[in-house]
TrEMBL record:
PANTHER family: ARABINOSE-BINDING PROTEIN-RELATED, SUGAR BINDING SECRETED PROTEIN. The keyword Signal applies. It holds the Pfam family SBP_bac_8. It comes from Streptomyces regalis. This is Sugar-binding protein. Residues 1-26 form the signal peptide. InterPro entries: Bact_solute-bd_prot1, SBP. The keyword RNA-binding does not apply. Keywords: Signal.
Length: 441
């Protein structure tokens, strides 16, 4: 969800740097939202209890006013959010502090690509939240992702990532393409290859300085997240090399990477953000949480120019959890905040602000995007589009090294083809070498 990642050697280096340069007792995220440091919880002025929450990307809690609302309801609580943009920085740092038993935030976000690792290797470092909540309020498969074999629930579900395609209808119009979201969805229905074919048509009359899609990696993730077979099978066996889903996603991404339709931008880095602001690409694979990101990065200039259409195939890209480390000095207060933030009512408020799709089904009948969000995306029926995708998401299995395997394929394999001009075979071989290192083979 929300961020990009890098390879295992980079992850280990970052973890080491985190330990050496920030200290195990420092909880500060380098990209803290307000530039302030986190002292791992504690008491603020006036006898208030300061709760820290470590997140990555844009969770929407601050943007939806939930922190302010909670502090108003609980005057003895002060909330400080520490935001790290990328999970390849965030998660190794969290692991280092979990293992040290100190320096964690009172609440830690866990991305779906990391949750299996957390469940299988760090469960004893998290409070069992299953004893604190009514688990029936979340989707069963969402709970299952954060539950250990002996039934311990280490995280409460925040959102899921049903897929759509977000596109600049102004750029489509200039390129002579269909702009109606329903007709577009019909053109590429059932096959991301048809989406790529439309990209070829776009490039024939592309407005100056624009490309059809932000990156080949974006297309790879979109395709893969609609497939039931990814990097692991249901028994936890690594199958990435023989995975039909990986092959389909890779082949589709290679068609993009070896063409002229990609802006060749690495997601969640500054040039990508600038690409939104400068309208340098016309489409982006768009899980629900991407709505908030586009709002933030495209700014006022993008208002009414973006639209949303159903994706070629249903899929789920991302989704997260929040857990309470046992190292938290304020477990009782942190548990109460985590429960409140993930309650259906609060999930609906975050959806209203930025369309992050709830993992609590009871919120679905009440979902309504904010008028400003709907207007920004050309009055697209966001709720209906993402709900329809969510209803048909295939069952997927994640493994302990799911995230670094994916990172090797996108940030090494695909990037080498897309940005360095290497062949698809060379890109695959480079990714394979990294994955073998990740898996200790």
């Amino acid at each position: 969800m929300r961020t990009s990642t890098r390879g295992s050697r980079r992850l280990m280096a970052l973890a080491a740097v985190a330990a050496l340069t920030t200290g195990l007792l420092a909880g500060c995220a380098e990209d803290s939202d307000d530039g302030s440091s986190n002292e791992g919880g504690g008491n603020g002025g006036g006898g208030k209890t300061t709760l820290t929450i470590g997140t990555f990307g844009t969770f929407g809690y601050k943007q939806a006013g939930l922190y302010d609302e909670y502090m108003k309801l609980n005057p003895d609580i002060t909330i400080k959010e520490n935001v790290t943009t990328k999970t390849d920085v965030y998660w190794p740092k969290v692991l280092t502090r979990l293992q040290a038993g100190a320096g964690t935030d009172d609440i830690q976000a866990i991305e779906v690509g990391n949750v299996t690792e957390a469940v299988q290797t760090q469960a004893d470092k998290f409070v069992d939240l299953g004893k604190e909540v009514d688990k029936s309020q979340w989707l069963d498969w969402k709970n299952a992702q954060a539950t250990t074999k002996d039934g311990k629930l280490i995280g409460l579900g925040t959102d899921i990532g049903p897929m759509a395609v977000c596109y600049r209808k102004d750029l489509f119009q200039k390129a002579g393409l269909e702009t109606d979201r329903t007709k577009l969805a019909e053109q590429w229905k059932g096959d991301w290859g048809k989406y790529v074919d439309l990209g070829k048509e776009y490039m024939k009359k592309a407005p100056s300085g624009t490309k059809f899609v932000d990156s080949a990696s974006s297309v790879y993730n979109a395709v893969l997240n609609g497939e039931s077979e990814r990097y692991y099978d249901k028994d936890g066996t690594v199958v990435w090399e023989k995975s039909a889903g990986v092959k389909k996603a890779w082949d589709t991404a290679m068609e993009v990477a070896t063409s002229d339709m990609s802006a060749k931008l690495k997601q969640f880095e500054k040039p990508w953000d600038q690409g939104y602001a400068n309208a340098t690409f016309a489409t982006v694979a768009c899980p629900a949480w991407m709505i908030g990101y586009i709002l933030e990065q495209s700014g006022d200039a993008g208002k009414g120019k973006w639209d949303v259409a159903a994706a070629p195939t249903a899929g789920n890209w991302g989704g997260s959890f929040i857990g309470v480390p046992t190292a938290s000095k304020h477990q009782k207060e942190a548990i109460a905040l985590a429960k409140w933030l993930t309650a259906p009512e609060q999930q609906a408020k975050v959806f209203a602000k930025q369309a992050s799709f709830p993992s609590a089904p009871s919120a679905y009948p009440t979902l309504k995007p904010a008028a400003a969000t709907t207007e920004y995306f050309s009055n697209a029926p966001i709720t209906e589009i993402f709900s329809a995708s969510a209803e048909t998401i295939p069952t997927q299995y994640f493994g302990v090294k799911d995230q670094p395997i994916g990172t090797a394929l996108t940030d090494i394999g695909i990037l080498q083809v897309e940005q360095q001009g290497k062949s698809p075979e060379e890109g695959w071989d480079a990714a394979t070498e990294e994955i073998k290192d990740v898996l200790g083979q």
